[in-house]
Design goal:
- The complex is a heterodimer.
- Chain A is mainly alpha-helical.
- Among the domains of chain A are: about 60 residues, no CATH class; about 180 residues, MetI-like (MetI-like fold), CATH 1.10.3720.
- Helix content of chain A is about 65%, strand content about 0%.
- Chain A starts with about 30 loop residues before the first helix and ends in a 7-residue tail after the last helix.
- By secondary structure, chain B is mainly α.
- Chain B folds into 2 domains: about 50 residues, no CATH class; about 240 residues, MetI-like fold (Orthogonal Bundle), CATH 1.10.3720.
- Helices cover about 75% and strands about 0% of the residues of chain B.
- Chain B contains 15 helices and 2 strands.
- Chain B has a two-stranded antiparallel ribbon with strand order 1-2.
- Classes of the chains: A mainly alpha, B mainly alpha.
- At the A-B interface, helix 3, helix 6, helix 7, helix 8 and helix 9 of A face helix 1, helix 3, helix 5, helix 6 and helix 7 of B.
- Chain A: This is Sugar ABC transporter permease.
- Chain A: Belongs to the binding-protein-dependent transport system permease family.
- Chain A: It is found in: Cell membrane.
- Chain A: One of its GO terms (biological process) is transmembrane transport.
- Chain A: One of its GO terms (cellular component) is plasma membrane.
Chain lengths: ~350, ~300
């Protein structure tokens, strides 16, 4: 079995955050791959011929190739900056521009000075601070429930392997084929009246946290990673008297930091982006996260203040991306984890 | 993998509960608990419930079986053909906007010598922006007044102001343009990964045969990418079939139902009416959509299987 065998990426998260056209991201780091990537990174930094592409070194020496490729690279860079970063730069500008200027001359560069007050007004008067805190609490809980289910489940299916593991794995995999749409209404009714306890999780953070844990995709990812850990280490630990809990906590988890990092980062970002599910479950505005709150304050808020609120909401995901860039790109790139 | 089985699987000896506990049965169950509970309540149960509910009518207090009534009602809804057409139109436009350009960009980016990381970081940046923020920002860009952001830019090149979201014909392409902005980076990164995986020997072989740059791209790269191209195609269809956020936040389905999509229709059935949702019809319609998507992902799974083993 190959380590890169693909996972069907429909990733029907129970938490509906369907972004149209968004390509579901399938990070699939394994220890071997990570080492390989690190080596590749080293190689490319010293610019050896190891990193081979369609245009060879000798091709590059030809003036026509050099000129046309060089030009198109510059053109591409300019297009990327204008198309991908341009809107965000505009957002940053609007966040500190007086509302009058935003409405009358959106493309002019600060004709009437800078309005830093937008930011403080958004943070205090529009209570972005509160929604920001809600967003963080929601992300933290969703992260915890995803990590808990994925690691214990992955450990069970990969290392402990009881007799029913095969059935369980099949049941988890099967949910990958069920698109998120199907779950929307029945999941809402389940949260409205939970089985056994008969309590409602509506207007409670648990209503967002718990369903977030049911991500088959995370379980499969972590299980694949555990499958590739060296069994000799487990065996040695057992000989030394480690029980299943000790093995999990002191051996398997510390060895799995790369995959836990990938799962964590995607859990946090997915929770930050989520809109429809928190909209349905958290009806009380005091509990709503930024993504749910922003559209409802849109009409009644001053444009400058709204833009400041939008900019504040974007800050954390962008900072996370800039800090963990490699993890993001590697994870997303393995989305096509198919040997061409 | 099979040899490890023997070493690590708990001893499988039929016997008393005590031998079951000694063999690790109890601790295995402890580790199974989070998965069983969370998946049971929030995944398996709702899936079963979806099927059951599509044949029922409920007002949350009393529930009755109505046979195929929900499906009949869904098919009788005059908005269903409109929503289907709009969703297909969205999917088609998303393919036209978001399919070829990322490919060209990725092929070019693969050849970048310096600051390679900068290119992919720039391309991926919009993907991490929260979708709600992106939509609200673009909604402002689409301001139909001549002072609107896009209309100002069009004014620089002498194009008259456009109505954008307020026009029946322009609303959907405007939605797709924003969706493409938000998603294209992910596609680029997938293509880049696939391009990196092309075995270098193939280039060497092509060079020995005297192939130039263009022929290497056309005869080596493109055939090697066939698999991933097909996969991104299916992924995009599955993603766009479930489009909700853009029509919901940009236009609410308007103008004159020009941007009502299937998921928006499902949302309206279930949550659009403050007097109580029509949950039966909502699940019936989502099941219909799901069957279509399941077929798509099954095709996808089959094909990736074949490609990964070959």
């Amino acid at each position: 079995m190959t380590t890169t065998s693909p996972i069907p990426p429909t990733t029907p998260r129970p938490v509906l955050g369907t972004v149209p056209g968004e390509v579901p991201v399938i990070p699939g780091a394994e220890p071997v791959g990570a080492a390989r990537a690190r080596r590749a990174r080293k190689a490319s930094s010293s610019d050896t011929t190891d990193d081979r592409s369609a245009v060879s070194v000798s091709d590059w020496r030809r003036p026509s190739v050099r000129w046309s490729l060089g030009t198109s690279h510059w053109l591409l860079l300019v297009l990327l900056v204008v198309w991908c970063v341009g809107p965000l730069l505009l957002l940053a500008k609007f966040a500190v521009t007086p509302t009058q200027d935003i409405l009358r001359t959106p493309m002019a560069i600060f004709p009437n000075g800078i309005a830093w007050s937008n930011l403080s007004e958004a943070w205090n008067d529009v209570q972005v601070s509160k929604y920001f805190a809600n967003t963080i609490v929601l992300a933290a809980g969703a992260w915890f429930s995803q990590i808990l289910v994925a690691t214990t489940g992955g450990y069970l299916l990969s290392v402990l392997r009881p007799r029913y593991a095969r059935v369980l794995q099949g049941a988890v995999l099967a949910t990958l084929f069920v698109p998120a749409v199907v779950l929307l209404v029945p999941l809402y009714l389940t949260v409205l009246d939970t089985p056994v306890f008969h309590t409602s999780l509506v207007n409670s953070f648990w209503g967002v946290w718990l369903p977030a844990g049911a991500s088959a995709f995370n379980v499969v990812l972590v299980q694949r990673f555990f499958d590739n850990l060296p069994r000799e280490v487990f065996e040695a630990a057992r000989v030394d008297g480690a029980g299943p809990y000790r093995l999990f906590w002191s051996i398997v988890l510390p060895m799995s930091k790369p995959i836990l990092g990938v799962v964590s980062i995607f859990a946090v970002i997915a929770s930050w982006k989520d809109f429809l599910w928190p909209l349905l479950v958290l009806r009380n505005p005091d509990l709503q996260p930024l993504s749910v709150r922003l559209p409802s304050i849109e009409a009644t808020t001053d444009k400058g203040v709204l833009m400041a609120a939008l900019a504040i909401s974007t800050l954390i995901p962008i900072v996370l991306f800039l800090v963990f860039q490699r993890m993001f790109l590697r994870g997303a790139g393995l989305g096509g984890a198919v040997k061409g | 993998m099979t040899t490890d089985d023997v070493v690590l699987a708990p001893r499988r000896r039929p016997g008393t509960p005590l031998t079951w506990v000694r063999g690790g049965g109890l601790s295995a169950l402890v580790f199974a608990l989070p998965l069983l509970v969370i998946f049971g309540v929030f995944s398996w149960l709702p899936i079963v419930r979806a099927v059951v509910m599509s044949f029922q009518k409920t007002n949350l207090i009393t529930t009755s079986w109505v046979g195929l009534q929900n499906f009949q009602n869904v098919f009788a809804d005059p908005l269903l053909p409109v929503a289907t057409r709009n969703t297909l139109w969205f999917a088609l436009l998303a393919l036209v906007f978001g399919y070829p350009i990322p490919l060209v960009a990725a092929v070019l980016m693969r050849e970048v010598r310096r600051a390679k990381g900068l290119y992919s970081a720039l391309a991926y940046l919009p993907v991490v922006v929260p979708p709600v923020v992106a939509v609200l920002l673009w909604k402002f860009f689409y301001d139909p007044r001549p002072e609107g952001v896009f209309n100002t830019i069009l004014g620089w090149v002498g194009v008259p102001p456009q109505p954008w979201l307020q026009s029946m014909t322009m609303a959907m392409p405007s939605l797709v343009l924003e969706a493409t902005w938000a998603a294209a980076g992910g596609t680029v990164v997938i293509y880049l990964a696939a391009l990196t995986a092309v075995p270098p020997e193939l280039y060497d072989a092509a060079e020995v045969d005297g192939a130039g740059v263009w022929r290497k791209v056309w005869h080596v790269l493109v055939p090697q990418l066939r698999g991933v191209l097909f996969i991104t195609l299916i992924l995009q269809v599955i993603g766009t079939a479930q489009v909700f956020l853009e029509p919901y936040l940009f236009t609410g389905g308007g103008p004159a139902n020009a941007t009502v999509t299937i998921l928006l229709l499902i949302y309206r059935y279930a949550f659009g009416n403050s007097l109580g949702g029509n949950y039966g019809e909502a699940t019936a319609l989502s099941l219909l959509l799901a069957v279509f998507l399941a077929v798509m992902s099954l095709v996808y799974f089959r094909l990736t299987r074949r490609w990964s083993t070959s």
